[in-house]
């Protein structure tokens, strides 16, 4: 193997390494190896084209164009650089925009190096908005932020740089500085320490399962929403019924209290009603008593009046009138003790005198055809003396005359049975048709 | 510790598009093979 072949192999080795690093987005490292490959073999087209791509990816359009143009010059035919150049120049104005962006960056760098940091920051912010992969602009912006103590913004810019070129030495160095200022370095150190420590478990240590995940913002919102829904469900199905039961219980208690009061009031009303009824009955009884005392002919006062009339007629010797009044007297109403004694004496007199008078009055009424009055006198006679067969026979005859054969036969039977030796018994038998 | 003044001076202006042609012309494309060929040529001449 001659020296030229060895040089070719060395160039290829550097290219391969550079290609690997580029695939891993270690663009700075890849650029170093690709430059080394080109130092061994300037005709290594792939190495040069890849180096151009890396410059283009890092926002260095002019450096990319330089490499691709040289590549085309060294290998005019069958060269991928032709395609890259075509892509960059195809879109109208794209190259002009790239040119302006680079000019703005250089201007911002001029301001920054001249102490006009604010102007530089404004310019650089606009540049990274237009060209987010411009690594040098991000780095300069991060440095300015760091200088002004805005380490959070610096960290964001550096994070973008490391996304494009993950081993960018300047970005790594700045990032370490930023982390040391924001406290993230300590947090990461603790995490590393915990990750590799083998200390004994403490009682209050918590073992997180492998499936455990820190909630993101959206997950937190969703979890809060789920929590609110569950809370609402809990309120609807558990708290509200309990509250409703409580309200119902209170309502029932209140209703029960009202019902008790109502019952008491009703009982009182019933009691008053009973008292009123009692008073009303007493009033009616009193009125009745008064009426019985003062009212119609059957009243007590009237009976006392009759008593007086009887006594007057008796004193005058008018026995017939006295007897007629006596048979109409309601003796039960004579309750006065002094009058009751008088009545007793009168009864004795009447028992002796009244039968003859009554028999006579009955005969007169019968003769006059007033059978009912005749029967009335005979019945009064029977109350005083029921052992006179003539009276019973006379009553039977009146009933027979009135057509009441049954009563008449019964009375004829009494005469026949009780007074068999009496001449009237034979007449009674004849009347009954024996 | 990062020295801002020192650090800011390390930043170099980017190559502008208009300067690409100059850059290409000024590019030193000498590689290891050129150097070897030069050395071997000198050796033969001696």
From TrEMBL, chain A:
Alphabetical list of PROSITE patterns matching this protein: TPR (PS50005)
InterPro entries associated with the record: CellSynth/LPSAsmb/PSIAsmb, TPR-like_helical_dom_sf, TPR_rpt
One Pfam family hit: TPR_8
Keywords: Coiled coil, Membrane, Repeat, TPR repeat, Transmembrane, Transmembrane helix
Coiled coil: 255-296
Segments crossing the lipid bilayer: 217-239
TPR repeats: 45-78, 135-168, 355-388
This protein's name: Tetratricopeptide repeat protein
Organism of derivation: Enterocloster hominis
Classification of source organism: Bacteria, Bacillati, Bacillota, Clostridia, Lachnospirales
TrEMBL record, chain B:
Source superkingdom: Bacteria
Name of this protein: Uncharacterized protein
């Amino acid at each position: 193997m001659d020296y030229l072949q060895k040089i070719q192999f060395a160039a290829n080795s550097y290219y391969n390494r550079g290609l690997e690093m580029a695939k891993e987005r270690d663009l700075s490292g890849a650029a170093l190896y690709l430059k080394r490959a080109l130092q061994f073999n300037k005709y290594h087209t792939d190495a040069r084209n890849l180096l151009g791509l890396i410059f283009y990816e890092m926002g260095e359009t002019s450096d990319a164009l330089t490499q691709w143009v040289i590549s085309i010059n060294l290998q005019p035919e069958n060269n991928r650089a032709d395609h890259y150049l075509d892509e960059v120049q195809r879109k109208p104005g794209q190259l002009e925009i790239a040119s302006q962006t680079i000019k703005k960056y250089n201007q911002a760098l001029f301001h920054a190096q001249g102490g006009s940091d604010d102007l530089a920051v404004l310019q650089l912010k606009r540049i990274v908005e237009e060209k987010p992969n411009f690594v040098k602009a991000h780095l300069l912006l991060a440095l300015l932020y760091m200088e002004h103590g805005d380490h959070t913004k610096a960290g964001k810019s550096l994070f973008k740089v490391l996304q494009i070129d993950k081993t960018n030495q300047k970005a790594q160095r700045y990032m370490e500085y930023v982390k040391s200022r924001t406290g993230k370095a300590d947090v990461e150190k603790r995490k590393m320490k915990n990750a590799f420590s083998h200390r004994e478990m403490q009682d209050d240590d918590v073992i997180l399962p492998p499936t455990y995940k820190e909630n993101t913002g959206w997950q937190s919102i969703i979890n809060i929403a789920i929590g609110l829904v569950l809370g609402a469900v809990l309120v609807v199905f558990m708290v509200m019924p309990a509250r409703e039961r409580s309200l119902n219980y209170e309502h029932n208690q209140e209703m029960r209290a009202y019902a008790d009061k109502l019952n008491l009031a009703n009982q009182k009303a019933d009691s008053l009603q009973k008292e009123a009824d009692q008073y009303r009955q007493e009033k009616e009884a009193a009125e009745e008593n008064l009426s019985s005392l003062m009212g119609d002919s059957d009243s007590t006062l009237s009976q006392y009046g009759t008593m007086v009339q009887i006594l007057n007629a008796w004193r005058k010797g008018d026995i017939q009138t006295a007897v007629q009044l006596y048979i109409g007297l309601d003796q039960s109403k004579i309750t006065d003790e002094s009058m009751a004694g008088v009545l007793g004496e009168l009864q004795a007199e009447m028992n002796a005198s009244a039968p003859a008078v009554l028999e006579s009055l009955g005969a007169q009424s019968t003769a006059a055809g007033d059978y009912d009055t005749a029967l009335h006198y005979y019945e009064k006679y029977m109350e005083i003396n029921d052992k006179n067969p003539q009276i019973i026979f006379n009553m039977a005859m009146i009933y027979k005359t009135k057509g009441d054969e049954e009563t008449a036969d019964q009375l004829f039977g009494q005469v026949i049975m009780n007074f068999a030796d009496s001449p009237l018994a034979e007449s009674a038998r004849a009347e009954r048709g024996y | 510790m990062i020295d801002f003044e020192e650090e800011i001076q390390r930043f170099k202006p980017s190559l502008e598009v208009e300067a690409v042609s100059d850059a290409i012309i000024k590019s030193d494309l000498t590689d290891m093979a050129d150097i070897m060929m030069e050395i071997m040529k000198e050796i033969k001449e001696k």
